[in-house]
Amino acid sequence: MTDEALYKKTFSVQGGDFEKAGEISTRIKEILKSTGIKSTIIRRVAIASFEAEMNVVIHANSGRFEFTLTPDSIIIVVDDKGPGIENIELAMKEGYSTASDEMREMGFGAGMGLPNIKKTVDDFKIETTVGKGTKLRIKINLNHS
Amino acid sequence: MTTYVHALEFDTEKCAGRLRCVRVCPTHAIRVKKGKVRVSSSLCIDCGNCLVACPEGTIKPRTDSWEDVEKFKFKVAIVSPTLFGQFPVAIKPAHIIDGLLAIGFDAVHDISIESELINIAIQDYLDEYDGPLPLISSTCPVVVRLIQVAYPDMVGQIIPIEPPREIAGREARKRYSEELGIAPKDIGVIYITPCPAKIVSIKQPAEGAPSNLDLAIGINDLYNPLLSAITHRERDERAGKIVRSKTGLHGISFLHMALTGGQSRELSRIRPMSVAQLPNIIRVFEDIEKGKLRNIDFIEAYSCTAGCIGGAFTVDERFVARAKIYQLVKEAQDGSEHVSREAARLYKKGEYFIRQQFKPRPIQGRRIDWTEKIRRIKAKEEFVKLLPRIDCSLCGAPTCEVFAEDVANGRSKPEDCVLVGENRLELLRKIYAMDYPEITRESED
């Protein structure tokens, strides 16, 4: 196993920018499609990266989104400046959300974001400091055959 | 490698390299090289955008001719409601059906009951289905092919229920061969098509199973003889009524099927949405792929603006045609109840499945090492920075972005860009036979 980067790209995410929300995951999907990686893997990456991107848009002030392609995996690190998560255990429960009422009225904050990401990826790490921000690192194995 | 049958034929002799087709192709399957068009067969999804855009008549649809129709002993026309919106308002569906019989069809079968049948089938299928949502209608062949080419992981979301025209084809053949004692092969089932894509869906169905339809004739090819047959006949007392196969009535719901949203209207038990035109469909599919589209069970998607009335073989302007269909709906003696009752009586659960599975379409040239592909992606990203991003298409590709991809993949040379290559403009002047006198300017003293 190696984490040597074959391809790396970083994006910045603006908290509260719902107009552009989802553009990064679309871009990543495009890149992956031209590599010829299996479509089932691309779809998992698309879902996980979209949820991660949305988390920043919904909850944080800003974030840095880093996408790395290694010979045997796809790694996404999302580092945001925001409120952090007070209770990670709760946040990982399906249906739990700290999204504001406004966000919920818009249809966001169903409490599926983090649990959905975890379900979709092969490796999931989260570090958070209340009042400072959250860093999410996820990995999807390529399982070449 | 599978060879793909296409509904459109390119006569390169006639091609003047005017680039219209290159710009409108949704899958970027077309390039102009040395002033002539080139098409990638595996990327073409038969939408017909190029056919409509070409000012030179380079592109010809491969519709069947009346001679092909005449080979059959008994000829059944399968008509969709789109046809009914193509004529002046005084000409009612009943006249159009009479006209079809007058020009030589032995029977006319509209797809009203079939439309109703698949609506029941879709709701039933959804009740038991627990895979990823939304499911996507299989009615528009372009949409099915778009998924096979560009959204391979979504092929499982194409609902495996036959489109109404296919069910109608099977039913018509069965009915007339039983009623009249004619061998099924002697019955010609001919679809009157609003678009080229449906020709391909007959000649080479996306799922690989044989079609129930024999031939396809474009609405535009039949229009003049049909109009003349209609106007030279006495209007009979059937005016205003809508006749199915000379006997029954059909419903308002059927007329709506020519329009975007027509099907969604009828699906009361589920959460449907409708979308038309490829750029919109692509945006919706992008959202589905990343899980953004939620709370939708079923999508009816049509490649053409406003639905099938926007097809390349239609005659009247699509929004005018839509207005006429709305008018027909108002005037129609609604047979909806009758049709619903008939459909409920005929409906057999599990009968309307497409037996073969939809599979992604393998794209040619994908078999290179993926680290090499990554190298090419990087090369593309570097090269595109040097380009003007004005998408002039003079390189022969639709956009600077696509051109950069072509260059990275060795399909074009950097100097094919007029702003990169020293001699590109000179070459283009020759290709387009432009012989300008040298421009001289008087000095302003």
Describe it for me?
- The complex is a heterodimer of chains A (145) and B (445).
- Chain A has a single domain (7-141), classed as Histidine kinase-like ATPase, C-terminal domain (Heat Shock Protein 90, 2-Layer Sandwich).
- Chain A is 35% helix and 29% strand.
- Chain A is built from five helices and five strands, in the order βααββαααββ.
- Chain A has a five-stranded antiparallel beta sheet with strand order 1-2-3-5-4, with helices on one face.
- In chain A, β2 (62-70) and β3 (73-81) form a beta hairpin.
- With 445 residues, chain B is an alpha/beta fold.
- In chain B, 46% of the residues are buried.
- Chain B has helices at 20-24, 49-53, 66-70, 93-102, 112-128, 141-150, 164-180, 197-203, 219-231, 252-256, 278-289, 318-331, 336-346, 370-384, 400-408, 424-431, and strands at residues 8-10, 30-33, 36-39, 59-61, 74-79, 107-110, 135-136, 187-193, 215-218, 272-276, 298-302.
- In chain B, α11 links the parallel β10 and β11 (298-302).
- Chain B contains 16 helices and eleven strands.
- Chain A binds chain B through residues 6-7, 22, 25-26, 29, 31, 34-37, 39-40, 42-43, 46-47, 49-51, 69, 71, 107, 116, and chain B through 152-153, 286-287, 289-292, 294, 360, 366, 368, 370-371, 373-374, 376-378, 405.
